[in-house]
Structures are given as C-alpha cells and as structure tokens.
From TrEMBL:
It is found in: Secreted. One of its GO terms (biological process) is proteolysis. It comes from Brassica campestris (Field mustard). Gene3D superfamilies: Acid Proteases. Residues 87-439 form the Peptidase A1 domain. It comes from the Eukaryota. Pfam families: TAXi_C, TAXi_N. Belongs to the peptidase A1 family. This is Peptidase A1 domain-containing protein.
Length: 447
C-alpha cells in the first residue's frame, strides 16, 4: 500500500466523519461511539490480558455466539446468549438520566437493562438503574402492542397489576426476567449534547442470573425485529443506520462509531472508494440480517459458495440468504464443505510460508514464514451485486512474528460474516430499501 493511497484514504475517512457530524447538528443523524470490549475504555478491560489471551477469548465467544444463530436447535426464540457481542455503547436512561454501559447487539431485538429494586441482579460496574427514582418510567399493559410482539414463551402477565413481563432464557442457563416498560433513553452523541428518545420500550430486568459478567448493564438491540432500538426509532432515522469498526486487530485499542439516520448511509463523496450494495434478505426469523453470498475469489480462483440458506420455513427461505452479517461475532464462519475447497485455495496461493498449526489450537489454516515476508492472496467476497475485496487484516490474523492464520473457520451450521472482515468498512443498513452497503474507508490494512 503506497503512502499516497494511504493519505487519500485517511482524508476520505476524515471527510466522511466531518459530513456525518455536521449533519447531526441539524437533523436526526446521530453519531455514537462504540467501545470494543477489550479496549481500555471498556468496563471489561483487563490490562493483564495479552493479545493472544484476547484472541483466544474472542474465538470462544464466537463459537458460543454462533450457536445463537443455529438452525438446528429450538433455542432460536431465546434470541440471545449471555454474551451479547463485542461492542459497548454508553447510554442514559430515565429522568433524571442515569448512565449505563450496555452491549450494542445486531443479533437481538429487545433492549433490556438491570433494574432496581432487584430480586436478583448480577454484579455490574457502576450503579444499577433505579426505576423508582425516575419520573418517566411507565410499565406496559398485558394487552399492549409491545407485549403482543413478544414470542409466547418470552411473554408473561402480572394479572393483579396488569403489567407485561418478559423472560429471556439463554442456552447456558442464564436468564433475564422483568417488566416491559417505556423510558426516556438518551445517548451521548459524539457531536455534542445527548439525544433523547422518550417512550422507548425496554425490559426492566429485576431477576437476571447466569454468566452475564461480560454484558455490562444490559443490551441495546440493533436487530431487525419490532422491539429493537432501530425499529423503534423507525421513520425518525429513515430506518437507516451504519457503523464503522476500526482497529479490531487486537493489537490496538478497538473503537468504532455507529450512525443513525438518513445521511448515515455510505455514499460516494469526492470519488471515494465505491459503495457496494447487496440485498438484505428477509426471513420468518425477523431478528437477523441475512445476505446472499454467491462465491469467494482467492487470488485468481473463484469458488462458488455452496452453503445452505440458514433456516426459514419456505423453500425460497432455505435457498437464499445464506449468511448472517453480525457485528457481535469476531470470526467468520463458512459452510464446511465449501470451506475445504476455500482453505485449499488459500493454501495453494500463499507464498513464502509453510502450512503450520495454530499455537493456540484454534484456527485451521496457519502459515509460518521462513525469515521473509508472507505473500497472502487477495480474497474477494461476492455477495449478490457486491464484490467486497478484503484487506489482509480483514482475512488474516498475525499470531506472532512468524505465524499468520486465516481468520475464517468452518461450520456445519449457518454461515456468519463476523466483525474482523467488516473492519475499516462503513457498513450501512437500509431497512427501507432492504439493502446493505459496504464502503472501504481506510486502507491501512497491512498486517
Ligand atoms: C428468579 O427467576 C428464577 C427462574 O424463574 C426463579 O427460580 C427464582 O426464584 C427467581 N428469583 C427470585 C429471587 O425471585
Ligand atoms: C487505528 O490504529 C491506527 C494505527 O494502528 C491509528 O493510526 C488510528 O488512529 C487508529 N484509529 C482509531 C479510530 O483509533
Ligand atoms: C490504548 O489506549 C491506552 C489508554 O488510552 C494507551 O495508553 C495505549 O497506548 C493505547 N494503545 C495503543 C496501541 O494505541
Ligand atoms: C470524480 O471523478 C470524475 C471522473 O474520474 C471527475 O470527472 C470528477 O470531477 C471527480 N469528482 C471529484 C469531486 O473529484
């Protein structure tokens, strides 16, 4: 990557950031910071963890999270596993506002936070929201619209008080239970003062138990379903949001931003890198964002993608929408039959290095250099209508000075497009046009 290109790309990133923040002063176009869970600004930050500790933990989280998306279990309705994702958002709730740090999760819908008075709350950093001190807290009735949207097994009713209740049970015996309520939620916009969203539906969780220690105060749902923050803000943000994740390489401080609103979509300012647009596929399971992956090119070899449709009830649903895009899964999962050919093509085109095993025993395709630079193939993801060229940092991980591994792994279940491959792209979700777009805005992707 030449210096010239690098400067152009940095400039482009600055211009885009400027555009977004200047819009946000005037309309519902909002920019918020995302905090990677391993960054020093995260409540979970542990300075004693090495890069390799973090990678191993991220790998295990990816595996456990991939089960959430499984097409094979009945647990789909639980919607969540205790590990909600990789990025935190700082929000305030109630009047007067009380600050909480919650996971921003593209793989779930219902927003929930721990709520006092607790029957049973897990330990969190910082105070727990106390609904009795807020003047804007209001419970929802059992026949209310938000209550009716909950799945049967997630829904309850306190008949004596006419309050809708929710229960989310997770695969690992964790659960959260509480009242469905509305509150004023405000988010600190990075362009200035906090922006308030009165009457936001959320779960006020007073009985939360299990392995939640990695979850902050709760979850902000960014999924596609009716109770997610995105769906609730709906037309006021033109049903559009985008995010930009950077420095997820585990050697730097991971950061990102999320933008809500019509002007948040990638566009082509000053001849920037192209905006690549692909359809968002809608399925009966209405929380996740499905894309259609047609093929992957490794160097000069194009390999048709053969993975299945990842769930759904009709034949059409079974054959299209074969990969879920998710910001909360670090690694990328590809169907194992396809992966065999894909991995072989990667191995055949790596130069200056020999196949080696992962010192941590996680990744399948690692390469060890013999005192020289490793030649890595260019990898392009062919989504319908969008050929997304990955940088080496998207597709590979440097394990140590000598070993580089492919950051994609095989699965016998639904494929997932994880956050390492999304880094340094602006990823735009347009739920009105039903499209997803990618635009590379940083070219500093060398290993
Ligand atoms: C919390 O919910 C669980 C599961 O429904 C229940 O067994 C437990 O008794 C509840 N805890 C309290 C303190 O109410
Ligand atoms: C990401 O890391 C690069 C160098 O590793 C640095 O120059 C850049 O400012 C970082 N970006 C953010 C958003 O932190
Ligand atoms: C990460 O952030 C911390 C504190 O903000 C800083 O001391 C450290 O140098 C940063 N590391 C990198 C690689 O940027
Ligand atoms: C973008 O590129 C086109 C053709 O390459 C050129 O005509 C146009 O002036 C450029 N626009 C800007 C804003 O640089």
């Amino acid at each position: 990557m030449g210096t010239q290109t690098f400067i152009n790309c940095s400039l482009l990133a600055i211009i885009i950031t400027f555009l977004v923040s200047s819009y946000s002063a005037h309309s519902q176009d909002l920019t918020f910071k995302l905090i990677h869970r391993d960054s020093p600004h995260s409540p979970l930050y542990n300075p004693l963890h090495t890069v390799s500790d973090r990678l191993k933990a991220a790998f295990l989280r990816s595996i456990s999270r991939s089960r959430r998306f499984s097409t094979k279990t009945d647990d789909l309705q639980s919607g969540l596993i205790a590990n909600g994702g990789e990025y935190f958002m700082s929000i305030s709730i109630g009047t007067p506002p009380s600050k909480v740090v919650a996971i921003a999760d593209t793989g779930s819908d219902l927003n929930w936070i721990q709520c006092k008075p607790c029957e049973n709350c897990y330990k969190q950093k910082g105070p727990i929201f106390d609904k009795t001190h807020s003047s804007t807290y209001k419970t929802e009735a059992c026949d209310s619209k938000p209550c009716n949207v909950l799945a049967k097994k997630e829904k309850g009713c306190d008949q004596s008080r006419n309050i809708c209740k929710y229960l989310y049970a997770y695969g690992d015996q964790s659960f959260t239970k509480g009242d469905i309520a509305t509150e004023t939620i405000s988010i600190d916009s990075s362009s200035g003062s906090p922006v308030s969203f009165p009457g936001t539906v959320f779960g006020c969780g007073y009985n939360n138990s299990g392995t939640f220690d990695g979850t902050g105060s709760g979850i902000i749902g960014l999924g596609r379903g009716p109770l997610s923050l995105i769906s609730q803000l709906g037309s006021s943000i033109g049903k559009k949001f985008s995010y930009y994740l950077s420095n997820t390489s585990y050697s730097t401080n991971g950061t990102g931003v999320i933008n809500l609103g019509t002007n948040s979509m990638p566009s082509n300012p000053s001849n920037g890198s192209a905006v690549l647009t692909t359809p968002l596929i809608y399925k009966t399971q209405n929380t996740y964002y499905y894309l259609n992956l047609e093929a992957i090119t490794v160097g000069k070899t194009k390999i048709p993608y053969t993975g299945g449709g990842g769930g759904g009830s009709s034949l059409n649903e079974k054959t299209t929408g074969n990969i879920i895009i998710d910001s909360g899964t670090t690694f990328t999962f590809l169907e194992s039959g396809f992966y065999e050919k894909f991995g072989a093509a990667v191995e055949a085109s790596v130069t200056g290095a020999k196949r080696a095993s992962d010192p941590q025993g996680m990744l399948t395709h690692c390469f060890k250099a013999r005192h020289k630079e490793i030649g890595l193939p260019e990898i392009t993801m062919h989504f319908t209508g969008a050929d997304v060229k990955l940088s080496p940092t998207n597709a590979f991980l440097k394990k140590d000075e000598e070993i580089v591994c492919l950051s994609m792994i095989p699965t016998t279940d639904v494929a997932i497009y994880g956050n390492l491959v999304q880094a340094d792209f602006r990823v735009g979700y347009d739920l009105e046009a039903k499209t997803l777009s990618f635009q590379r805005i940083d070219c500093s992707g060398s290993l």
